[in-house]
Structures are given as C-alpha cells and as structure tokens.
Automatic annotation (TrEMBL):
This is Transcriptional regulator. Residues 350-407 form the PucR C-terminal helix-turn-helix domain. InterPro entries: CdaR-like_regulators, PucR_C-HTH_dom, PucR_C-HTH_sf, RsbRD_N_dom. Residues 25-164 form the RsbT co-antagonist protein RsbRD N-terminal domain.
Length: 416
C-alpha cells in the first residue's frame, strides 16, 4: 500500500477490514461460485484450476481490496503485478477480456452485498466513503488487468503472425511445411485455393483531406476480416492495400473440385469486394500443399491476363481466360497475330468499336454502348474489314479477330 493510516471504516458496528479478513476464505468461495454461475466460460475451466489458480487470484484480490479499505490507499506495485500476471494467464487460456474484467466486478459486488444489509444509520457516512474507495480501487485495478491481458494477447498475436508468415513463405517456396504447420498449431489441408489479388482504390483513398495510407489500411483490414470470416480454417496472406497473395484452405482435393466449389469462391470474393469497398480482381489456381508454388505462378499469370484484357472485378480461373492466356505466351505466332490489326494503329475509334462489338455481340448493342447510331457502327466495321482483311461480322473471322486483339494487348503490356 502507498499509506498505512486506518480510515476507521465501520459497518455493522465492527471495523470493516477486520470483519472481511475473518470471513475471507468463505467469501472467496462465494465469489468463485458467483463467477462460475454468472460466467459460463469460467464454468468450463478444469476443477483443479478453479480450486487452485482462480481461487488464489480471488483471495489475493480480496486481500488487496481489504488492505485498501484498511489504509485508504491503492494497491502496491507488487499486488498490481500479481493481478497483471493473472490476466496474462487468462489471455493464454483464451478467455475474453470483457469476461475477465466482469469477474473482478462480480467479486466486488459479492463483497458489497455481504456488507450493506448490516449497515446502521449512523454508518451512512462510512458506507458512502467505502463506496467511493471501492470505485477508486476498480479504477486502479481494471486498467492493470486490461493491460496485462492485452500485452499477452499482443505477444501471442505476434508469435502467431510470425508462424503464419513462416508457413506461407515455406509453402510458396516449395519447402516441406508440415513441421512449420505443427509449430504454428495448424493442420495442413488437402488443398489450397491460391489467389493472386489486385485491389483497387477505395473512394476514401482519393478523397481530399483524407490520409490515403489510413484509408488504405482500413480497406485492407476489412478485406482480411471478411476473407477470414468466410473461410473455414486458417487463411495465409501476404497482402498490401494494392493486393498480394492469399492461400485459402479447402477440404476438397484439388482434383475433385466442382463447379459448386468455384461458384462458392466467386460469391466469397464478391462479398470481400463489397466489404472492402473497392474493386477486387483475382486469379486463382488450386493445388495440394506441395503444389502451391506452381499454383501461385499460374494464379499470377491469370490475374495479369485478366487485368490486361480489361476484365471487370471478380474471380478468374485459367478456363476463364484460356484464349488470352495462350496468346500471352511469346513467340512468332503472337507477333504475327498482333500484326493483323496493325492497320488500325492510332485509330482508337475503330479499335474501341471493334472491342465493343466483340464484347457486346451485336451492332445495336454496340451502338448503345458507344452512344452512336447503328449506321455509324456499320460504317466503322466495314472500314475495319477494308483495312485489315478481317470482317468481325463474319463468323469465320471472329475467332481470329479476338485472338489478334489478345495478342495485341499482350504485346502492349510487355512493352509498357
């Protein structure tokens, strides 16, 4: 204690500190019973822990409180360190902080309930003073308990994050990861869905007067939280506000994935996009843990092709970009294909019309998208056919024109 003067509090005609000291063992049992009754999480603790560590903490807390009543002073550093260490143990056990703090308040409530029925009219002044001192005691103890708990949780979080990062690095590098997974307390799944992710800017990142770094971190946090909420098992990520890599555990082997699995993942990414508040586009490939490096490379390639070919936000597999992917491979055929549209170089109006026509699938739809008359579309398509020898309105030319556009986009990305 920081002082030794006895305030002389009396309730029921007796010195308060003396009275509580005499009943401390039974009072501790009453506090424990009340905590177990009102907080289910404590009731799930082993009986040995309840009768041992938890009871010891209750008794020590009661002694500290009684000393506060005896001296009018707040607990000593040694007493507070004990409570801090106790809170750290509760953090290790995974008991939520709000529940830990509630237990301390229940203890004080039990003490107070044991005293007030015996209070005499002439002791009202002492009762009010004890009430004020009780609040002061909680004011000192609560932050110490919270700090001890949060410090331990931060240490645990840092250790867990480090273990996850090590495991992610091992998987991406193709190193044996079973031992690292065990050290991290994780089970290796049959399959990882490997995502290469690109994240667009949130409106807040571009708003005047808003720190874009803070807005970006908030966006990233929302994205991670939603991804982990949707996925069963431990998600391994290396993400920045602009994107990165995510490994999603899946209980179905890569070779057994069905359209239903991919549809589910598409919905997950849509929810992540909505929660992040920014466009998210991802390439994905599935593999067993040993195949993660190759899957990550493929997912990155798929993502690059999807972005380069102007795809909208969403999830893309190799099957979704087969044509563009194939024509992203360098070689003489790629250059030859791109050269078929060389006569359109510099004519963005014709190129835009061609791309829109192939995407929309009709002259009227193209005209509506470009806000021009259908006759204008017809004229531009004839002009394209005259310049290139490829008529996008002829079925036998559509595949070649599409391939030439893909090759052109690939070469443009490479040169830029």
């Amino acid at each position: 204690m920081t002082g030794d003067k006895d305030p002389g509090f009396r309730i029921g005609g007796r010195p308060l500190a003396e009275r509580l000291t005499e009943v401390l063992p039974s009072l501790a049992k009453t506090v424990l019973a009340e905590i177990v009754s009102r907080i289910p999480e404590y009731g799930l603790l082993p009986a040995e822990e309840l009768s041992g560590d938890i009871t010891h903490v209750i008794e020590q807390n009661l002694r500290s409180f009684i000393d506060t009543l005896r001296t009018g002073s707040t607990p000593t550093r040694e007493e507070l360190d004990f409570l801090r260490e106790s809170a750290a143990r509760r953090a290790e056990e995974g008991i939520p902080l709000d529940i830990v703090l509630t237990a301390y308040h229940i203890g004080i409530q039990v003490v107070w309930a044991s005293l007030t029925p015996d209070a005499r009219p002439e002791e009202v002044t002492d009762v009010l003073a004890v009430n004020a001192l009780t609040l002061r005691y909680l004011e000192v103890v609560t932050p110490v308990v919270g700090a001890g708990y949060l410090d331990e949780r931060q240490t645990m979080f840092d250790d867990e994050r480090s273990a996850r990062h090590t495991l992610l690095s091992a998987l991406l590098d193709g190193e044996p990861a079973e031992v690292m997974a065990g050290q991290a307390g994780l089970r290796m799944p049959p399959c990882y869905l490997v995502l290469a992710v690109s994240v667009g800017a949130h409106p807040d990142e571009e708003a005047d007067g808003v720190d874009p770094l803070v807005a970006g971190r908030r966006k990233l946090r929302r994205l991670r939280v939603e991804l982990e909420r949707q996925i069963r098992g431990t998600v391994l990520t290396s993400l920045t506000p602009e994107g990165g890599v995510a490994l999603l555990p899946h209980e179905t082997a890569a070779c057994d994935l069905t359209a239903r699995d991919w549809a589910w993942l598409t919905r997950v990414l849509a929810d992540v996009t909505r929660t992040a508040g920014a466009d998210v586009i991802a390439g994905v490939a599935a593999a067993e843990p040993s195949g993660v490096p190759a899957a990550a490379g493929l997912a990155q390639d798929v993502l690059a092709v999807a972005i380069g070919s102007g795809r909208s936000a969403g999830l893309y597999r190799l099957d979704d970009v087969l044509l563009e992917y194939q024509f992203s491979r360098p070689g003489p055929a790629l250059d030859r294909l791109a050269s078929r549209l060389a006569p359109l170089d510099g004519n963005e109006e014709l190129l835009q019309t061609l791309e829109t026509f192939l995407r929309r699938g009709g002259r009227r739809q193209t005209a509506a998208a470009l806000h021009v008359h259908p006759n204008t579309v017809d004229y531009r398509l004839r002009r394209i056919a005259d310049l290139t020898g490829l008529d996008p309105t002829r079925l036998e030319h559509v595949a070649l024109v599409s391939a030439a556009l893909a090759a052109r986009a690939t070469i443009g990305r490479t040169r830029s």
